[in-house]
Amino acid sequence: MKSILTLTLLCVASACILALSNAHTKSYIQQNIEKQELARLEGLVDELDRELLCEQGIELFEVERRGYGGEMSVVVAIQDGSVLGVRVVRHSETPGFDDVLSPDDWIGRFAVEELEGIDAVTRATVTTGAVLLAVEDAIRLYESGVGECTEKR
């Protein structure tokens, strides 16, 4: 009976320590996730202040789409109806498949080519197809007047 009581107390103490650790680190983890997402937007636009972007006529749309590995969060920058660039800020794609999501790889083509000229990549068809659909969704949102800068257009 004594060993059962000792084991129970150890389990309760461990659970309390884990709960306290989780509560203490939750905000730090969220801050780090937000910093990583902002770092992924680097090079997409010069400024991340929505008000300044609106003054420049730039609208950012964040669209969720399902890729090969799960949900992806895609940010599309649009200015005067043209796509300035695209970044994936969150995804669960398999390493190797996510290479195409690097701004230096396939996804960087959105900044220099028309949408009609960009095809899915053979080895990552589902991933790149999801990005293409997200860009099309963002363009539809822009054209329908949904966005923070709508009243300024």
Fold and architecture overview:
The chain has 153 residues and is of the alpha+beta class. It has a domain at 50-152: Enolase-like, domain 1 (2-Layer Sandwich), CATH 3.30.390. The protein is 42% helix and 18% strand. It has three helices and three strands. The protein has helices spanning 2-40, 50-55, 125-143; strands at residues 58-66, 71-79, 82-90. The chain has a three-stranded antiparallel β-sheet with strand order 1-2-3, with helices on both faces.
Strand content: 15-25%
Strand order of the largest sheet: 1-2-3
Q: Tell me the distance between the termini.
A: 75 Å
What is the element string, with H for helices and E for strands?
A: HHEEEH
Q: Report the strand count.
A: 3
Tally of individual helices: 3
**CATH architectural designation of the domain at 50-152:** 2-Layer Sandwich
Biggest beta-sheet profile:
3 strands, antiparallel
| Inertia-based shape | elongated
Q: CATH fold name of the domain at 50-152, please?
A: Enolase-like, domain 1
The CATH class label of the domain at 50-152 is Alpha Beta
Cα radius of gyration in angstroms = 21 Å
* Unreliable residue stretches: none
Quaternary structure state of the chains depicted: single chain
Helix proportion: 40-55%
